[in-house]
Amino acid sequence: MVRSRLYLRPTGFVEAPFGHDGKVLRLAGGLCFFSAIEAIEVEDGRRIAQTLVPVERLEDFLASLPGDLADQGRGMLARIVAPRPPLQVGARTIRLDQPQVMAILNMTPDSFSDGGRHADPGAAAAGAARMLEAGAALIDVGGESTRPGATTVWEQDEIARVVPVIQLLAGGGAAVSIDTRKAAVMAAALDAGAGLVNDVSGLTYDGEAASLVAARGAPVVLMHHQGDPATMQQDPHYGDALIDVYDWLEDRIEAAVEAGVDRSRIMIDPGIGFGKTLRHNLAVLNGLSLLHGLGCPILLGASRKRFIGALSNEAPTEARLGGSVAVVLAGAAQGVQMVRVHDAFETVQALRVWRGLRDEALSPI
User: How far are the Cα atoms of 30, 107, 161 from residue 191, in angstroms, in the given order?
Assistant: First the structure.
């Protein structure tokens, strides 16, 4: 049986809606406005049509399609423009109508960028406090490296790494997320004061993770990946990287909802660098706005990753700040609600300038 699907990607972004009555739509209740949709029709996993449709002609275009495709398109459009509600992380409320910064705190000896820097909980908490002072909205604490080639850490070792610093941060009133694939680590971190679960496996690694997240009522990030960290970069392949990532995330959202997770508490992450070649990463980043059709806030984590070095004369990990900020701004321009970064001060500054430019554009002359 031939299976046809329609995907809508917002494009034709403009700085402000003024003077464009009826010709632009607001993206996810945020600071971005789009004037066109790229309508992508896929049949049995293959793109068979791509049409650039101005916003003012979008309803006519949808009406011209077969009923099921038209219904798909209208549902997707409704999700694209629907404002994303604030994210409740513990006692903290984080607005998602503007890009927010999730700062990385790796309590690991072998993470690809900052492994071994934060072995002492007190020093780690002090470093996190500086990132919060710089303007980060929350701290993402991890105790297991998921870099390409990494091996699995015993869950009790992971708990011992993350719980002390989470207790210090949460005790000081910080919003904290736990970066883990394991239900036992999630439970210990939530007990210690973490308020969000960031699972790079999209709740697929541990069979008890989804029910735990549902029972605790914690927000969760579902990240796309292909393969496991030890082997994911050996031979990643896709029929269509952007569409495949969309479909996978859609399936994981539905699985989480079926397990009892409130859809309003789900964020999605396209998983840059997790089972993807340079071309795959770029295809996903260039088409990132397509993911708004899933109706969930988007977290983008590309800080210091290998593809940045590949695009910048093989810059080493510690010399990828400029490229990391460039990706953040590219994501913000496509309406991403949150970015996960190592360099909080520089990223917050870049986003504040970007926001200032937007605010000026949104001020009527």
Answer: 33, 18, 15
